[in-house]
Known about the structure:
This protein is mainly alpha-helical and 85 residues long. The chain has a single domain, classed as ACP-like (Non-ribosomal Peptide Synthetase Peptidyl Carrier Protein, Chain A). It is 56% helix and 0% strand. Helix 1 crosses helix 2. It is globular. The relative contact order is 0.20.
Amino acid sequence: MRGPDTPITGLRPLIAVVTGSVAVADIRPGDRLVEDLGLDSLEIADLLVAIEERTGVVITAEALAGARTVAELESAVRRLQCTAA
């Protein structure tokens, strides 16, 4: 398990790998995970596993429910990192 990166730097590569079609440089904080980046339910599940492996943070259903954009997902990860510490 790696230590936490700056969320935008840490999550963008994970999102790019999961989508397989969006470059890291093209991912913006305001991008919507489903509508803009095209993640489907299986890719979102893969992304959550990748986030957990990278940060040690388990994204709960409650935290994910409010995360529609990259920035909102980053914020959820930060909050969960703080509560886990």
